Amino acid sequence: MLKTLTNLIGVCGDEKDVREFIKQSLSGKVDQMDVDPLGSLITYQNGNTQHPKVMIVAHMDEVGFIVTAIRKDGTISFTPSGGVHEQVLSSKTVKIGPNRIPGIVRMEDSFENSYIDIGTTTADETSQLVAVGDYIAFDTQYGPLYGTSVKAKALDDRAGCCVLASVLQKKWDLPLYGVFSSQEEVGERGALSASYRVKPQIGIVLEGTVCSDLPTVEPYRHSTTLGNGPAISIADNTSCFDVQLSEKLCSLAEENGIPWQRRRIMGGGNDGGVVHIAGEGARCATVSVPCRYIHSSVSVANLEDLRHTIALIATFLEYVEKGGLD
Which of 62, 184, 185, 188 is catalytic? Predict the structure, then answer.
């Protein structure tokens, strides 16, 4: 599933291909499923209402770009959709618009002076293929690396989508909402509207988070480590996560032999920033799959981390089913 999810294109605001694949994978597995006005896919399993209402969120969108102008020489001006690291862009291949027109990024000193080359030489030629407002995605295919490591674009947050879709293959006996949110990378918008609709008591956010276990980074500064299991957050720029809920996730991992780690930086943010304060608020925690080089054309993840994240979320839901949070 992760291969298909990451190969699909779903730049912020244009998540439909990802959403349709997830809908197909969950057909017959949930009691209700619909798409809200912002494009989030909201699923529901109608279980024992004596247990708290749980909402698990993973965002479908990936960072990318939008076409802003077509120049006289046929090259394309563009602007980011989400936070993209400029230093990794030059000479990267991309796909543009609904027809997935291939192009090459030429990065200069700023986005204003940069452009995409699709091989045309006039504005008329380009205009037959591309329009202002078209979305642009990185053209990177999923593939294996050494051992259980893989490379792909959009692991933030198709890794989380894969975890959530996998967990929802089982019928759970609690009121469980699985939300595949839109537009997280441009302000957590889909999760906000979904939270007002669902009104969860418990929110669990699934992410593909930064992993800085790199040769140039001292070990004490590693935010997460590839292969050490799901990362449980303490806080970030948008949330101070519920202490008891986060500690319960840690203890469940320990008791069940599931490798886990702390996310050891306080920066960044995710859908938890809106889930915990929407409406009357909700107890919230974030569980993440470590991913190197996020917000670039290609990231690296470990399939064992993904498997252990699925196991931890399933173990947590079993705990809720047994009345652990009643």
Answer: 184
